[in-house]
Amino acid sequence: MSPFSFDEIDQDSTKAMDVEKSSVPHDKLSGIESGVTTEISEAQSPLQRWARGIDRVPEELRQPNISLRDYCQMGLVWFSSNCTAGSITIGILGPILFGVGLNDALVLSVFASMLAALAVGYISTFGPASGNRTMVFIRYTMGWWPSRICVLLNLVIMLGWGLVDVLVAGQILTAINGGGMSVIVGVVVASLLSLLVVIFGIRAFHTFERYAWVPQLMVMFILIGLAGPSFDTRLITTGSSSQVKNADRMSFFFLAFSGPITWAPAGADFYVYFSPNATRWKVWLSATLGLGIGTAIATMLGAGIGSGISANPSWTDAYNQSNGALLVEIFRPLNHFGSFCNVILALGLIANNVAGTYSAALSFQLLGRWFAKVPRLIWTVVSVIIYTVLACVGRNDFYDVFENFLALMGYWVAIWVTITLEEEFIFRRKSGYDWTAWNNPKLLPIGLAALAAFVIGWGGSILGMYQTYFTGPVGKLVGDGIDLGVPLGVSWGGLAYLPLRWLELKYVGR
Q1: Is 34 exposed, middle or buried (0-12, 13-18, 19+ CB in 10 A)?
Q2: CB–CB of 5/69 below 8 Å?
Q3: pTM passes above 0.85
Q4: pLDDT in the model for residue 394
Q5: CB < 8 Å & 24+ apart, contacts of 199-205
Q6: Gyration radius of the chain over CA positions
Q7: Which UniProt keywords apply (predicted)?
Q8: CA distance 502 to 39
C-alpha cells in the first residue's frame, strides 16, 4: 500500500452514498469527512449518514504508512495558514501600540511565534495518534460537560479570526479600487471564496494549503523589498523608565504569542487522517516549524512596517484609514502589478480563514447531540454567515474589539495546554488513552478537577491582564501596565490541577 497522500484519491471513485463500498481507503475517509458514511454502522438513516463529521477515524480506515512528503504537508498546512496579512497586523501593533523598538519587536516576534508553535505542535500530535478532533480529544482532560465550555470559546476564536480575515481582505480590495468598491463587497467576496474551499472537506483543504503559501511568500518578499528602506532601524523602545520599557516589551510578546497559540484548539483537526504510525516527534516538529516560521515571517514584517509608519506621512494617512489601505499604499509604486500583489495578499487571508472555518463547523457539532445531527456542511455555511454579517455590520468597531480580545483568548488556551501536558505526562504516563472511548461519558474523566483548575487559572489571568478595557491589580504593578495574564494563568491553573486531579482519581476513579 502506498504512503498516505491526498493526491492519490481516485477522482472517479464513487458517489457519496456508495463510498462505503469503495476499496480505496481515501474514498472512504472522504465520505466520513463529508458526513456521508461512518465506520460505526452500515444500516443508518440518511440523516445519520450526513451527520458524522466529528466521528473518530479508526486505524483500519487509515493507511499504515507515512512518508516524508506527509510530514512536509503537516508543516505546510500551518505555514500557509499563518504567513498572511493577518499576522502582519499583529506585528504592526508592536511599534504603534506598545512603542517597542524595531530590534526588540523583531526578536520578540520570533520567540513569541516559536513558543506558541511549540504548544500547537504538541496538540497536533494527537491527531494521527487518536484519530479524534481537538475538541473531541479535549474530553479526555475536561470531561464530557465541562469540555463544551472550551468548545464555545473555540468558536469565539475561530469566528473571531474569520471576522478579522475577511475584514482585512475587504479593506485591501476596497483600497485597491480607490474606494469605488465598498468594504462589504470585499468581505463577501473573501467569505464566499473561503466557503468554496471548506465546503469540499479535508481533501480540498489540504490541497489548497499545500500550494497557497507559494504566491503568498512571493508577495511577502516583494513587500519586504518595497517597505524595507522605510523601516526605522534607529527606532528604540520608548518609555519613561526601564521598568516601563520592559513592561511594554512583555505585553507585546504575549500579544504576539496569543495570536498563533489560539490555533491549539484546532491543532489535531487536520491530522486525523494521517497514519497512526506517524512518529510523534516528527509530527510535532513539522507542525511547530510550519506554524512558527510562517507566523514569525509575517509578524516581523509587520513590526518593520509599524516602525516606519510615524516617519512616513503617506503611510500614516493610509494606516489611519485601515490596515488594508496601508498595505495598498506600500505597493503603490508598482502600479498595476502592485494592485495584483495586493489581490494576492487579500486572497491569501483565505488560507488562514479556511482552517478556522473548518474547525468552527466541527465545534458546532460538539455542542450537543442535536448539534451533531446537523451535517458539517450546514455548520460551515452558518459559520461563514456569522462572521460575514459581523464584519459587515461592525466593520468600524469589531476589528479593534477582537484585537483587544485576542490576548484574552490566548489565556484560556495556554491554561488548557498546561493541564493537558500534566494529564498526559503525570496522570496517564502508565495508563495512556483509550481513544475508542471518545463518545462514552462513563469512560471519560468527570472533569471537575480540570474545570476547577481552569477557573482558578482564569482568576490568575484576570489579575495579571493588561488590556484597554481592564487592567488587573497585578498588571498595574509594573510600569504603566504589563500583561501577565498568560504566565499567571498557566502557573495558577497548572499548580491547582495537580492536587485536584489526584483527589478526583482517588475518590471518583476516572
Answers
A1: buried
A2: yes
A3: yes
A4: 73
A5: 199/377, 199/380, 199/381, 201/30, 201/33, 201/34, 201/376, 202/29, 202/30, 202/33, 202/270, 202/273, 202/358, 203/6, 203/9, 203/26, 203/30, 203/33, 205/270, 205/354, 205/355, 205/358
A6: 23
A7: Membrane, Transmembrane, Transmembrane helix, Transport
A8: 35
Residues of the chain with pLDDT under 50: 1-52
What are the backbone dihedrals phi and psi of residue 471, each rounded to the nearest 5 degrees, phi first? Answer: -125, 125
- Sign of CA pseudo-dihedral 238, 243, 244, 248: positive
DSSP string, 101-121: -HHHHHHHHHHHHHHHHHHHH
Task: Report how far apart, in Å, the C-alpha atoms of 21 and of each of 29, 434, 505 are.
Answer: 12, 28, 44
With residues binned 3-state (H G I as helix, E B as strand, rest as coil), the percentages for the chain, rounded to 5, are 70, 0, 25
pLDDT on residue 217: 92
- Write the single-letter amino acid at 47: L
Question: What cell was used for 443?
Answer: 469512560
Buried b (16+ CB within 10 A) or exposed e, 431-458: eebebeebbeeeebbbbbbbbbbbebbb
Task: Catalogue all structural domains in the chain, each as residue range(s) with its CATH number.
Answer: 6-52 (no CATH), 60-507 (1.10.4160.10)
Give the containing element (helix H, strand E) for 506: helix 485-507
